[in-house]
Specification:
Number of strands: 5
Shape: elongated
Order of helices and strands: EEEHEHHE
Structural class: mainly alpha
Strand content: 5-15%
Helix content: 40-55%
Distance between the termini: 33 Å
């Protein structure tokens, strides 16, 4: 699920600050999304919504892969319907589906591996040098609304 930021907030997993109108990426887990929706920071958006301006390349690729996955699922359903009608041979349909799934899986795995590397690098770069940072602890929520100015 994709989420639109409707009020400024911070992702405590990455330290990334979001402003209203941003897309919350990487996508939050279900619990984090529910907390941010309840805090009126996020709103769900359709998976097929256009990529928002300002989205970085890695996030853009993740969005594209999710859209590809949705299209692949629909194509698979159409193939199964054609097989059920006897319009095409089941072996041909299965072979086409297997190749598409293998290609998409390889692309997704490569991209997710790169995202994991980038997240690890970011975590190392933003890690406090001492425990005296006064920041949030690991036990606290993984995202919170941004503090208001004023």
């Amino acid at each position: 699920m994709r989420y639109l930021v409707i009020a400024a907030c911070e992702d405590l997993r990455t330290g990334k600050l979001f402003e209203a109108g941003d897309e919350f990426l990487p996508e939050p887990d279900i619990d984090q999304a529910e907390r941010l929706i309840a805090a009126r920071c996020l709103r769900p958006m359709p998976n097929d919504a256009p990529v928002l301006p300002g989205t970085d390349e890695a996030d853009r690729k993740l969005i594209e892969l999710e859209a590809d996955n949705d299209r692949l699922s629909k194509a698979n359903d159409e193939l199964l319907a054609l097989v059920a009608k006897g319009a095409i041979d089941a072996g041909v349909a299965q072979s086409a589906a297997d190749k598409s799934i293998a290609d998409l899986t390889a692309d997704r795995d490569a991209l997710l591996g790169r995202v994991a590397e980038l997240e690890k690098d970011l975590a190392e770069a933003t890690k406090p040098s001492t425990d005296q940072s006064g920041g949030d602890t690991a036990e606290q929520a993984t995202a919170k609304p941004a503090k208001s100015k004023g």
